[in-house]
Amino acid sequence: MAAVEVSELTVRYGDLQAVRDVSFTAAAGEITAVLGPNGAGKTSTIEVCEGFRRATAGSVRVLGLDPATQQRLLSERMGVMLQEGGVYPSARVLDTVRHYCALYSKGADAAALVEQVGLTARAHATWRRLSGGEQQRVSLALAMAARPEVAFLDEPTSGVDVNGRDTIRGIVRGMADSGCAVVLATHELDEAERLADRVIIFDQGVVIADGTLTELRRGHDEIRFRSSPDLDTIALATAIGMVASRVGHDEYVIDAPPHPRLMAQLTAWLAEEGHPLTDLRAGAQRLEDVFRRLTADNDAERDRQ
Amino acid sequence: MKRFRTQLRTELQLVSRNGEQLLLTLGIPVLLLVFFSLVDVLPTGTDDPIDFLAPGVLALAVMSTAMVSLGIGTGFERSYHVLKRLGATPLGRGRLIAAKIASVAVVEVVQFAILIPVAYALGWSPSATNWPAATGAVLLGTMAFAGIGLTFAGRLRGEINLAALNGLYLVLLLLGGMVIPFTKLPGALRALAHGLPSGALADLLREALGGNGTQPATSWVVLAVWATITPLLAAALFRWD
Fold first, then answer.
1. Which of A267, A293, A304, B74 is the most buried (most CB within 10 A)?
2. What are the backbone dihedrals phi and psi of residue A151, each rounded to the nearest 5 degrees, phi first?
C-alpha cells in the first residue's frame, strides 16, 4: 500500500478550480517531488493531504487514514514543514524543538534532533536571530519531531546556502532511507533533480507528468553548448544534418543523442568557422528542460481545446 | 494532559521572555498604582487615592492580560503561521485554547499576588472585602476581554491588531472608571463608560473590595453580556491561518 494515495482529487475555491481530477501515489522509503509553477495546484493538494484543507471531490488517504476526518490520528505519524516557518519569533531553538517533541506520543529526542540539523551551537538562540538557512533547519527538525512515517516538506532548502543545502539533502535522504515517505514540494528543479526518486509535475491544476527522473527524460537526449552569440545556426544544421536552436544569448541545443560522430562534426565545424566552444554538455535533458517542455505542451494542448 | 502542560509551559515561557508583555501586564499597573497613590493629582473623590485606585488597577491588570497580551500574542502567532503549524500536531484546538486560558489565569494570579500587597503597602484599607464576588467579576471580565482580544486577533493582520488593541486599551482605560471616576466624565460619556466591560469590571471590583461601586447590579448584567457575546463572536470570526 502506498503511503499517500490521491485519487481524482478536485479542490475548488468558489468559481476557481485549483485542482482538477488529480491522482498520484507516494511510496514509503521514497522521496516524491511535487513540482509546478505558482498556482499549479500543488500547495492545495498537499494541504488536503495534511488535513488543513477539505477536498471538493475525490479521495485522499495518507497512511490509510482520511486526513479530513482522522487528522488527529494522522498527525501522530506525520511530519510537516511549512514554507513560512510557523515558529514563535521569541522562542529558542532547543525549547521549540523540545516543545514539539513533547506533543507526540513517540516524539524524538530534542537535543539529538537539534544536533542532527547542525544547530547545537545555536540551541539557545531565538528564532528571530537565526539566518534563513538556520530557520529552515529548525523547521525541518520540527517536521522530524514525530519520528514520522510520512513527511510533507515545503521548499526545505529555500534561502539556504550551499553547505546548508547539502546538510538538509542528507537529512531528507536519511528520512527516506529509514522508511519515511517524503513528499517534497518545491519550485527548485535542481533540488528535485538531486533528491527525488519520483517526480510529479503539476500545471494549471492537473498532473502533467508522473514518474522517475529516468522515465521523464527517456527519449529526450540533447547536446547543449555555448559558443559565439552570432553563430549561423542554418549553416551549422547543414553541416551536421541536425537542427540546432539558439536557447540563450550564446547557448545552443541540438535535440539528438550524443553520438560520437555528431559530436565530432559539431566540434570540427566550430573549429573550421573559428568559433569558440566555451561549454559542452551532452546526454539526458535536465529536469528544467523536461519541465519546460511538458508545461509548454500542456499550454499548447489547452490552446487547442 | 501532557500535551496541555507542554503547551501551557511554552505559553508561560513566551510571556515571561516578552519584555513588552511584562511591561504591559505588570510594569504599567504597578507604576500607575504607585505613582497616582503617591502623587494625588487624580480627582478620585476619596480621602486616600489608593482606595479608589487599587480596585481600578486590578481591573486594568485583567484587561491588560486577557485582552491586550492574549490578543496581540495570538494575532502574531496567526500571522507567523504558528497556529497553522500547531494544527499539524496532535495538540488539537481544544488543548491550545485551554492552555491559553490557563496561561492568562496564571499571569492574573501573579499580577494580583504583586498588586494587592503593593496596594496594602501603599495604605489601602478596604472597608469591606467580598473576595468571592471579586473572583466572579474577574472571571467574567477575563472572559469578556479575552473574547475581544481573540476577535481582533482572529481577523486582523499582526501589526494592525497590535495597533488596534493598544488603541482600544487606552480608550477602555480612560473611559473605564479605572483611574478616572465615572462622575468626572461628561454625561454622554458616563453612560457609555458604564456600558463598557472595563467600566463594569472596575465598578464591580470597587463594590466587592470596599463597597464603593456606583451601580453594581447593572454592572453585573453589563459584564455578563460582554462575557457571553465576545467569546461567541471570537469563535465565529476566528481564522486559524
1. B74
2. -135, 135
What residues does B45 pair with on adjacent strands?
none
Residues A210 and A225 in one domain: no
Listed residue (A209, A218, A176) closest to A194, CA to CA: A176
Mean per-residue pLDDT, A291-302 = 71
Same domain, yes or no, for A47 and A174? yes
Residue tagged 463598557 (cell numbers): B196
| Burial degree of A131 (CB within 10 A; 0-12, 13-18, 19+) | middle
From chain B, the residues in CB contact with A81 under 8 A are none
| pLDDT mean over B83-107 | 87
Flag whether A300 is in a domain. no
Whether residue B89 and residue A82 make contact (CB cut-off 8 A), yes or no, is no
The number of angstroms, rounded, from the C-alpha of A234 to the middle of its chain's C-alpha atoms is 37
pLDDT of residue B178: 84
Please give the share of chain A, as a percent, with pLDDT higher than 90. 52
Q: Give the global pTM.
A: 0.80
In this structure, the answer to whether residues A47 and A171 fall within a common structural domain is yes
Does a structural domain hold residue A270?
yes
Cell digits for A154? 515545503
Q: What interface predicted TM-score (ipTM) does this complex get?
A: 0.79
- Contact: B80, A88; criterion CB under 8 Å: yes
Q: Cβ A75–B88 below 8 Å, yes or no?
A: yes
Residue A73 · residue B89 · CB < 8 Å: no
Contact B55, A35 (CB under 8 A): no
Task: Classify residue B4 as exposed, middle or buried by CB count within 10 Å of its CB (0-12, 13-18, 19+).
Answer: middle
- Do residues A79 and B89 touch, judged by C-beta distance below 8 A? no
In this structure, are A160 and A34 located in the same domain? yes
Q: Does residue A79 fall inside a structural domain? A: yes
Quote the crossing angle between the two packed helices B216-237 and B131-153, to the nearest 10°: 30
Nearest CA in chain A to B85: A86
Give me the numbers of helices (H) and strands (E) for chain A, helices first please.
11, 13
Q: A38 lies in a domain?
A: yes
Same domain? For A207 and A61 the reply is yes
Contact yes or no for B10 and A90 at CB 8 A: no
Q: What is the pLDDT of residue A164?
A: 80
Number of domains in chain A: 2
Nearest to B17 among A52, A84, A90 (CB): A90
Residue B238's pLDDT band, with cuts at 50, 70 and 90, is confident
